[in-house]
Amino acid sequence: MKNLPIFLFILLSVKSFSQNQKDVYAIMDANAQKLAQKSGAYSVSIGILKDGKTYTKHYGEIDKGKGNKADDNTYFEIASVTKLFTGQLLAKAVLEGKINLEDDIRKFLKQDYQNLQYQGTPVKIKNLLSYTTALPRSLPDEDKLYEKTTDETPFLIRNLEADYTREQFFKDLKNVKLDTIPGVKYKYSNLSLELAGIILENVYGKDVETLFKENIFSGLGMQHTKFNLGKNENLANGYYDNGKLMPHFSSQLWGSTGAKTKSTLGDLMKFLKYELDSKNKVVQESQKNIENSKENWHGYLWDDYYISEYGKVGFKHGGAFGTQTWFTIYPEYNIGICMIINVSVPGGGYTLQNTASEIMEDFTSPSDKKQVYGYTVKGNNVVFEYNHPKNMDSGLINTISVAGSFNDWNPVNKEYRMKKKDANHFELEIPLSKFEKGKTYSFKFVLNNAWWVITPKKASNADGTNDNNLTLKL
Q: Where are the domains of the chain?
């Protein structure tokens, strides 16, 4: 797929702006252009929630050569972003006492499933939430189709899923086997999420879509988020990385995984604002570190929740056959970012994540001049230095390590663990003798063994690779 030749940066439905608004849109413009170039997407949509204000903008065209620019009401498949809706309902059920995190999931299934345990340890509700059920990736079994993917693979998966009934699902469920003790190993499983939908339907006596509408969509005014579109409503096309038009999902199952949900950037921005509500008990429960992890956690079905150079970060990536959605929140900054691109490309989630981080840097460090970043030389030592933002809670940082080419990129090497010098300043002294004069070393800072800090744009010692590591040379 060729990149967009021209970007028309036209602000939609707005005629005048304050300087702050102009700055926000300028940041969106610059990052949208880079995102289109890196991903190869025809269409890029970006929404930002900052200081209680919502900014949205759309770039390019959905179909090459047709000039059909997306807008706030364009329907896209949002795929696994749907899991956050499912997580909200599970959080609500926990707060209402209808389910407990320690409950055996079989308590809420109508048939007997002796196989949903491993050596006597059952799958619990909390395992569903943290992707640690030890269950297979999906039903129907699609593992062989993923062994060697091509631009035909999505069509094969779609056809398999389209013909797969709920009756067959329950039959196959009796034969699945757990591969380890639940709660031990992370393993992304859409099968687990279908079970979550079944549990919610059995607990509340209503289908998943109705529960979404009554408990989330209606209250937030999300009128353009649904399982089935009307006769005059159209779903945006998505493409493979070689430009081939991709199929849309087709599923007869419960929809709690994301295989049925269509939404718009306008609606997702409403949900983004909801996820930043620090006073909403359901929201806060859904983002809770239920695993009591000192590294990263998953809350209620987030892909990841961790501590970064921007404080707490939670994100969800939704990957359809030809569309990718990135939904992320920075609660300590009260900022949310949502992006949609209409291309399925390897590493697309990583590209979206980096774009979100670069947008955050533009907001938080807009005028920093180029300088050597991350270390100084003092006497006979190299002193690595990391400064956490002063308005962030550094108490959430359990460990900061330096990982690089000099220690096999090992973030758990205690010799390279930094020490807290004051409220938000961390240092590590390493003798000069550990480094060879004239040799270039690469490194990064790692927070809580989970987040590799993005090299800031102000760093003059960035290596310019895809990983954009910091460099050290004596």
A: 77-364, 375-473
